[in-house]
Amino acid sequence: MSTSSYAPKIWTKEFTAIFAFHFILMGAMYSTLVTVGNYAIQKYDVNPSIAGFAASIFIVGVLAGRGVTGYQINHLGARKIMLGGTVLYFLTYILYFFDFGLTFLIVTRLLNGIATGMISTALNTLATISVPEERRGEGISYFSLSMVVASAAGPFMAFLLLEQISFDTMLIYVGILMLLVVLMIPLIKINNVTKETAVKPEKFVLIEKNSLRMLMPVFLMGLAYSSVLSFLNTYAIEIDVVAAASFFFIVYAAAVLLTRPFTGRIIDQKGPNVVIYPTFILMAIGFFLLGSTSAGTVVLIAGFIIGLGFGNFQSAAQIICVNVAPKENVGLATSTFFIILEIGLGFGPVFLGLIVPFVGYSGMYLWLIVPIVLAGIFYMLMVGKRGAQSNTES
């Protein structure tokens, strides 16, 4: 790791540039993730399961990108991976503007997802090492807002834009934003390795084994949340709450923005358990409301509660994955967390799309309370008291 001297503060120029880059990258991801399914249904006349696959294949690509990145990050360095991923991103993004059918669209999303996974893992690693270790929980909580706010702003802007413009035109706007944020790359000078400390891996390593304690909780929560990303728009059309649903992710982000600053500090001082156990309960309540209503106001309340739940679960779970790993494997632990999460996010829509014809969208959201409860049970069994340790004690 670089030995640059950093003041004990979080919002340095580098951290801000890393945050901005990740925010736009995630905004680009979510803007297409929540709209491409409906686009595929309208343009190619496919069923919900295939449309869900067209959306979620991107996450599979992200998963592959993270796998390769986590393996090489202590050898090549996070900064070099960030630069390589950025070049690959734009080369694959251009493919969106060629229409050779549904299969070509799916392949394009897979390749662009790989580039996104490479960049995101590199940026998460750089963000983690750029904050003081004693404020790691707070720092990761702040940085993960880049994804949370993007997961709200991206879909919100996409829904608004698609009322006025085509899907292809929206892609142009997204591409321009990515080009602008790339101009901030020269501000990012920190790296997780130097020429002297770079270690060439002896064998392929996909995961940090110590972080696998969080396998089932992260996977099951990701599976549940994938239903919101992939099917909320279609569900809103079905129950006639499209106007309210367009603000769902804004309300979700507001809940996280209101709580992340102090939940991060609580994790540093008292350990993740104080935060993570309530997230399972809140998530279950949110899904119950979402699946049992046809009122726009209740949908928004559900969005706020799910934001309190899943939004804070993400940061707490990532902190646990990093804390249980050796210090030199921060990058691999970060990659492991996102690989698990994105397996749930990526494969969830395909599985859930198959059960929708039998239980409907509302029934799907109600049934998803079961894996949420199971996630809490698995956390208690696999992590339990280990999650009570604070960063000030470690």
TrEMBL record:
Its membrane topology is listed as: Multi-pass membrane protein
- State the GO CC annotations: plasma membrane
Q: Which keywords fit this entry according to its UniProt record?
A: Membrane, Transmembrane, Transmembrane helix, Transport
Subcellular location, record wording: Cell membrane
Does the keyword Transmembrane feature in the UniProt annotation?
yes
* Source superkingdom: Bacteria
Q: Which stretches are transmembrane?
A: 12-30, 50-69, 81-98, 139-158, 170-191, 212-235, 241-262, 274-292, 298-325, 337-359, 365-384
Q: Where is the Major facilitator superfamily (MFS) profile domain?
A: 15-387
Q: Annotated Gene Ontology MF terms?
A: transmembrane transporter activity
Which CDD domains does this UniProt record tie to the protein? Answer: MFS_YfcJ_like
- Keyword Transport on this protein? yes
The name this protein goes by in its record: Putative MFS family arabinose efflux permease
Q: What is the lineage of its organism?
A: Bacteria, Bacillati, Bacillota, Bacilli, Bacillales
